[in-house]
Amino acid sequence: MHADIVVLPGDGIGPEVAAAAITVLQAVAKHHGHTFTFAEHDIGGIAIDRHGVPLPEATTVACQNADAVLLGAVGGPKWSDPNAKVRPEQGLLAIRRALGLFANLRPVRPHNAALDASPIKPHLLTGVDIMVVRELTGGIYFGDKTRTAEAASDLCSYSVAEIERVMRSAFVLAKARRGKVTSVDKANVLETSRLWRDVATRIGREEFPEVELEHQLVDSMAMHLLAKPREYDVIVTENMFGDILTDEASMLAGSLGLLPSASLGQEGKVGIYEPIHGSAPDIAGKGIANPYATILSAAMLLRHSLGLEEEAQCIERAVSAALDARAFTADLAGPGKALSTQQATAAVLEQLDTHCFVAELRD
Ligand code: IPM
Ligand code: MG
pLDDT tens digits for 21-52? Predict the structure, then answer.
């Protein structure tokens, strides 16, 4: 097949990890006889520098016309003045909103070879397989903000329709997995959470009676996620809780550098695929960033936007095999034993030859 992929490398380590994922996508395309084009556009700090805005119109239009979007990361100290009028992060939020990407899928599956890198005891981690569905275009991230010399406010609001659609995404995923949804809120304090809980209960009862639904308060969820992560299948939550819980969940996998994500809108609309980590300005430009989260995001791109399930699995198997072979970047390896971004990418490409070949034989 042919696919036009827009790449938004962004800032910090974004360009390095995006380049790694492109290499892997090109290799997969070659193996399976697809042609992918990659068109780069600016977002975030680099867009502020070049165009004066974090999301140029041309970037939005290119994304709207693409088959899928691969994104690196945005942000950095250069643009972090708290009083700055424009911030790189606004570009990311604006493109999520512009494309209507309300469901952010963040899978968490600790890999056996990386268990030692997690601060959690290994016996708690085996068999953990969680899909966090984070609502991405509502809540406190997008509510009105006010600021005076004496006070500031951020409005958190959700509509029934916004909750319904992300709930349905979570239930559909759970049906194809282990059949359990954990809906996370703060219904003992927040009105938006009480609405969230009501809608979750109704959608569960009326549309997905075969799926088990439990409710958790976000504070106790933060604890249970570390104490008994195996109990969770699909976790669905609002924008900011999902942001926080997924950084926490990344510690189950051993490194923030291992977690991919897919941001999806309505069926048939373009999706954005990005690592959940940020721009890591402290290691940017050094060639040592972990490329696996972005490579695994590319696998999600193949699966969700292009419908190439076999190809997606071949990337996932290759990353898994590279981890088995202890092809670790600095975040996972001890000092001295760490691979560069390029070496880790090469390790995946090498495994890809084996794993895509196997797939071809099976076809
Ligand atoms: C994420 C990031 C973003 C978010 C930032 C960079 C705006 O932390 O994707 O998790 O908060 O959504
Ligand atoms: Mg985050």
Answer: 999 999 999 999 999 999 999 999 999 999 99
Which ligand minimizes its atom distance to the CA of 134?
Answer: 1
| 18 ligand 1 Cβ < 6 A | no
Tokens 């084009």 sit on residue:
37
CATH number of 119-253: 3.30.565.10, 3.40.1190.10, 3.40.718.10, 3.50.50.60?
A: 3.40.718.10
- Is the beta carbon of 242 within 6 A of some atom in ligand 1? no
- Would the CB of 9 count as within 6 Å of ligand 1? no
* Span 158-195, pLDDT tens digits: 999 999 999 999 999 999 999 999 999 999 999 999 99
Q: Which ligand 1 atom minimizes the distance to the CA of 136?
A: 12
DSSP alpha helices (H): ranges in the chain? Answer: 14-32, 45-51, 57-65, 88-98, 122-125, 160-175, 191-207, 218-227, 239-253, 292-304, 309-324, 341-362
CA of 279 to the centre of ligand 2 (A): 11
Contact 79, 43 (CB under 8 A): no
Say which CATH architecture domain 1-102+262-363 belongs to.
3-Layer(aba) Sandwich (3.40)
Residue 75 Cα: closest atom of ligand 1: 6
Q: How confident is the model at residue 334 (pLDDT cuts 50, 70, 90)?
A: confident
Q: Which residues are known to be catalytic? A: 141, 186, 219, 243, 247
- Compute the distance between CA of residue 340 and CA of residue 89 in angstroms, rounded to an integer: 27
How far apart are the CA of 22 and the centre of ligand 2, in A?
23
CA distance 195 to 281: 39
Ligand 1 pocket test: which of 17, 240, 243, 272 has the largest number of ligand atoms within 8 Å of its C-beta?
A: 243
Which protein residues have their CB within 5 A of the ion that is ligand 2?
243
What is the model's pTM?
Answer: 0.95
**pLDDT tens per residue, range 213-262:** 999 999 999 999 999 999 999 999 999 999 999 999 999 999 999 999 99
